[in-house]
């Protein structure tokens, strides 16, 4: 009960953020109380840090890269190109915006997609003078695709990094499993969004209202450097995994290179357009504290019996066949993530899978199902993921208010079918892949 009470109070403070209290300070406060009450031990800090450090610093580096590219106009340029390629056809623009969101989520993480693409899409919608129902369709699509398209690469979501590191899954192996599954997830998301919002999508819009994509570019040097740098970064992820080099190190080097270009370090800062110091100030450093603090609180919950209980459920699911085991694990993870946030839920699921006595093939399916459940499942509730909380915060700043009731109504319509189809794709693809 002590462990559960500490977790609930900590989670409330993380979501509520009274008087602007950072999520990191709330999580660290919860961890400190857990230590005082003996829910976790000092030795657990090293265990948890070993699980989360790579994911945490990779995430920070990716957000720094994303913020610099955003200030340089990279994402605005891409969005304007997509809007022009829509050629004035609203029903073509809608899937193109979803696909753009999927690419940004894949390469810049779900939080980057929610944080950076949303205000750009809103600005374009205002320029095109879309009606409120039409604008809402595009906004919902942008918010949901950020999470549902965050499966393909280890770096696409914090959940992916934590899981891959915990179970020692290489970047290449992870991509081989999840890229096809992610394609199914994106298609399923688009299909469900289309069924729900097709009647609100305008048939036509005026391309003449849009600015030329080139006008969005604020820093041409950073913009030109983005394409080769991102290509090299992706290649580096694949080539360095056999060397045992941490993903955070590779991503950190890319972030430093981009910071040097943006800050014109070789010129002593002369001619810099993007303020690197401002980007660093706005980087999510609170996530570092949140990761160690919240995971310690959840680790204490596991010590108190949650892991053992989860393992019992997974053992039962494992006896029902691979299809039921996969779907059951995915939906169980999704429900837990929706209640406690997907970051701590990922650790709970990983610990439970590690303790479960199931065949190796079933265990591997459960590992990836846990990732899918924690990537897609948080869309059931607003508190399910930090990306959703960021997205709602951005919307509120733009005077688009979506209540928790409205959000959950939408989430309960869209998420279950997408989650189910994606888990079925995993069941079909992973055994087939393993035959090669």
From TrEMBL:
Major location (coarse): membrane
TM regions (residue ranges): 32-52, 59-80, 92-123, 135-154, 174-197, 221-239, 245-266, 287-309, 321-340, 410-432
Keywords: Cell membrane, Membrane, Transmembrane, Transmembrane helix
GO CC terms: plasma membrane
Keyword Glycosyltransferase annotated: no
Annotated localization: Cell membrane
Membrane topology per record: Multi-pass membrane protein
Molecular function terms, GO-annotated: antimonite secondary active transmembrane transporter activity; arsenite secondary active transmembrane transporter activity
NCBIfam families associated with the record: 2a45 (TIGR00935), PRK15445.1 (NF011980)
Name of the protein in question: Arsenite efflux membrane protein ArsB
The organism of origin for this protein: Psychrobacter fozii
């Amino acid at each position: 009960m002590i462990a559960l009470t500490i977790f609930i109070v900590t989670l409330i403070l993380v979501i509520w953020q009274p008087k602007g209290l950072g999520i990191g300070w709330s999580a660290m406060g919860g961890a400190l109380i857990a230590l005082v009450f003996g829910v976790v031990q000092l030795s657990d800090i090293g265990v948890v840090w070993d699980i989360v450090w790579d994911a945490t610093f990779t995430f920070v580096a990716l957000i720094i890269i994303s913020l610099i590219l955003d200030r340089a106009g990279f994402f605005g340029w891409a969005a304007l190109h997509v809007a022009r390629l829509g050629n004035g056809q609203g029903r073509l623009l809608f899937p193109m915006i979803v696909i753009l969101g999927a690419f940004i989520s894949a390469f810049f993480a779900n939080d980057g997609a929610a944080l950076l693409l949303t205000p750009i899409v809103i600005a374009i919608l205002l320029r095109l003078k879309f009606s409120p129902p039409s604008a809402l369709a595009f906004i919902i699509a942008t918010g949901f695709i950020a999470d549902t398209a965050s499966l393909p690469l280890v770096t696409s979501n914090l959940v992916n990094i934590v899981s891959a590191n915990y179970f020692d899954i290489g970047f290449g192996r992870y991509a081989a499993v999840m890229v096809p599954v992610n394609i199914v997830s994106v298609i399923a998301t688009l299909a469900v969004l289309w069924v729900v919002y097709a009647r609100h999508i305008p048939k036509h819009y005026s391309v003449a209202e849009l600015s030329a994509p080139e006008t969005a570019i604020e820093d041409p040097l950073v913009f030109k450097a983005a394409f080769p740098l991102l290509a090299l970064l992706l290649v580096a992820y694949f080539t360095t995994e056999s060397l045992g080099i941490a993903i955070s190190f590779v991503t950190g080097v890319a972030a430093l290179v981009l910071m040097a270009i943006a800050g014109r370090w070789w010129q002593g800062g002369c001619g810099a357009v993007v303020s690197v110091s401002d980007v660093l100030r706005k980087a999510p450093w609170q996530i570092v504290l949140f990761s160690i603090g919240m995971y310690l609180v959840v680790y204490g919950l596991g010590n108190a019996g949650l892991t053992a209980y989860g393992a019992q459920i997974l053992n039962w699911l494992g006896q029902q066949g691979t299809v039921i085991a996969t779907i059951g694990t995915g939906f169980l993870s999704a429900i837990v993530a929706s209640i406690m946030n997907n970051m701590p839920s990922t650790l709970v699921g990983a610990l439970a899978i590690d303790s479960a006595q199931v065949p190796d093939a079933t265990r591997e399916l459960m590992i990836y199902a846990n990732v899918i459940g924690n990537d897609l499942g948080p869309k059931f509730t607003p508190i399910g993921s930090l990306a959703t909380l960021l997205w709602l915060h951005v919307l509120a700043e733009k005077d688009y208010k979506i209540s928790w009731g409205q959000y959950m109504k939408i989430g309960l319509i869209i998420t279950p079918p997408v989650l189910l189809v994606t888990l079925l794709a995993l069941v079909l693809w992973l055994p087939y892949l393993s035959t090669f």
